[in-house]
Amino acid sequence: MSTTQYLTKDEVGILLTAAAHAPSMHNTQPWQFDIQGAVIDVLRDAERTLPVADTAGRMTRIGLGAAAFNLRVAAAVLGHETTLAFEPDPAVPAVAVRVFLAGRKVPVPGLSSLYGEVGRRHTYRGPMLDAAVPPEARRALTEAARAEGAQLHWLDGHQRTELGRILAVANERDIHDEDRLHERMRWIGGERDGDGVPEAALGPLPEGPAAVRDLAAGFDRDGRGRAVFEHKPAIAILSTVSEDSHAWIRAGLALQHVLLTASSYDLATSFLNQALEYADLREDVRRLIGRTSWPQLIIRCGYPAQSSNHAPRRPWEATLEEWR
Ligand SMILES: Cc1cc2nc3c(=O)[nH]c(=O)nc-3n(C[C@H](O)[C@H](O)[C@H](O)COP(=O)(O)O)c2cc1C
Fold first, then answer.
1. Confidence check: pLDDT of 220 > 70
2. What domain of life is recorded for the organism (predicted)?
């Protein structure tokens, strides 16, 4: 390390620790970072993708977008405005997002206020209280998605019932698809150190039908308690108008803006994304929201009824590829 570097080691630690707290499918953390002066590249790590469940790399790019959003939030606390370029270099396709830090001033209003939520937010797979999500919070989450160029659709009772039908089909397929099952077994269940989803973070098994995804369906269900889930889950679908790799990165930025905003209202969140991992079922979900945009994530939201555990992360040093 030279003494003329733009960022100090502490600042790099703050930025990359925040980025690492982003959600990623099965907690694969499919990212590496390359820092050159005031430019941070968020790179796709091909060793940490899910070739069976995520053939196109859509979920991977959503995770990379979420990591880039957390970078922006941490940079805002350090006083840097940020601008982003998506897949800026055709010669290096692994670079998903290039983050440019502007000269240091004072903490950037807005974004920096979300910094406290970065470590608090996590995926909560337990039951929610029956209390409704207040309209003000719904509006704030919808606005958070819009700020990143995405949409959030809150489902009404009829749409929720219809989604329940689609989820039941997806759950059934998930259990019987040997390849997907093996891929999930590699990342999910048991004790985990650094990545993957440990059994302790999987939440209880539902008593009766519930809007929840059991990531360990088909294996590793011993030792988990059971719980009755909420009757009317608040469910929102995050979508983008276009459907390409840039839209997926954008969906990741929007997802993280929505999740951190939810956390700032003390709301817990989880995902029902199994319905989007099969092309025909994703089309059914697309129809549910009027076919005007592409569903990227299905988010369940509410006040948590139990405590819950966080999934582990690798130390930030393990994600830093180069620093010049
Ligand atoms: C694109 C994407 C899809 C996901 N799909 C699901 C899902 O269907 N079910 C689920 O329980 N969690 C899902 N997750 C949440 C991840 O499992 C979670 O982010 C990861 O384990 C890290 O844990 P944390 O969110 O608690 O920090 C998804 C996350 C992303 C980014």
1. no
2. Bacteria
